[in-house]
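User: Can you recover a sequence for this backbone? Please restate the input before giving your answer.

Assistant: Of course. Working from this structure:
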């Protein structure tokens, strides 16, 4: 049998399997809530009954889900940037919502779309400039964006380094810039630079961890609390987006690295009606004052669908996007 025939049979088998089993969609939603402390263990006290934002809040595209929220405060308002998965383009795009008080959020619009998938829009302020470091694996490089007109217009500032890195997470710590990033197969990479725009160098020990999907892919912004630095990681060992773990970084230099796990802090509830029944995989935290934080998380509920209904929905979305 020729290679072409084997590929055709494989595709036919996969299609028949999808028709028989149906499709499973991970529907992600976002919750924002106040906290008196940095989230360091699984003891969230906020009312988590309803999400703050979900796909139905998105009005300018047909959204399948919203995920990966990041918060900043600017001119006395709170801005939440997040991935919007557009059914029409079948790609992630970046949307923004605004809040006066951190409690009630109003979706605004898509602010960044490319010909490749975008997600994980980490936003941060340096002086008078506002930057965004999203995941851009489809571009085969890590790209830094800068606000041309905040919050709705963004442009590429520079390429930081080449490669298909997952959820790059940036932090300035002890006068040096650091980026933690995952890669396929469960690897954790570490880069450093004296300047935001580079040149960036990979750590001498990078990848720091290999072949471990439980503790390598970043799950949110790194948090510096006093002299201590923490990283969050999504646990994808059983399935994608199951939970989030917290690690304390004990050593961080150009030549050394060491961390230790603190706790499992986010996970699904297994409650059938819950929007986060099947998992959580992201957290961002904004310190508002010494004893007040604003926290954004996401959660998912898996939805099973008939294959033909799923395919028809995709076609309809592409036609009317």
């Amino acid at each position: 049998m020729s290679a072409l025939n084997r590929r055709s049979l494989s595709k036919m088998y996969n299609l028949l399997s999808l028709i028989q089993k149906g499709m499973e969609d991970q529907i992600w939603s976002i919750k924002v809530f106040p906290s008196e402390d940095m989230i360091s263990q699984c003891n969230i006290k906020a009312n988590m009954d309803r999400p703050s934002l979900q796909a139905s809040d998105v009005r300018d595209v047909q959204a399948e889900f919203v995920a990966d929220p990041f918060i900043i405060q600017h001119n006395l308002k709170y801005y939440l940037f997040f991935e919007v998965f557009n059914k029409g383009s079948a790609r992630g795009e970046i949307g923004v919502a605004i809040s006066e008080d951190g409690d009630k959020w109003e979706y605004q619009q898509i602010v960044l779309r490319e010909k490749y998938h975008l997600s994980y829009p980490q936003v941060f302020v340096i002086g008078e400039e506002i930057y965004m470091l999203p995941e851009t694996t489809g571009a085969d490089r890590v790209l830094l964006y800068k606000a041309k007109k905040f919050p709705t217009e963004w442009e590429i500032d520079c390429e930081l380094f080449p490669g298909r890195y997952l959820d790059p997470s940036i932090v300035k710590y002890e006068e040096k810039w650091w980026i933690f990033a995952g890669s396929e197969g469960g690897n954790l990479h570490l880069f450093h630079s004296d300047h935001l725009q580079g040149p960036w160098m990979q750590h001498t020990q990078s990848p720091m961890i290999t072949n471990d999907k439980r503790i390598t892919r970043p799950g949110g912004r790194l948090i510096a609390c006093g002299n201590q630095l923490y990283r969050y990681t999504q646990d994808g060992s059983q399935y994608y987006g199951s939970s989030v773990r917290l690690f304390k970084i004990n050593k961080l230099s150009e030549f050394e690295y060491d961390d230790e796990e603190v706790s499992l802090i986010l996970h699904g509830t297994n409650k059938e009606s819950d929007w986060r029944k099947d998992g959580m995989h992201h957290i961002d935290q904004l310190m508002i004052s010494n004893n007040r934080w604003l926290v954004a998380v996401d959660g998912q509920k898996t939805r099973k669908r008939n294959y033909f209904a799923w395919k028809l929905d995709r076609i309809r979305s592409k036609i009317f996007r």
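That completes the design. The chain has two helices and 20 strands.
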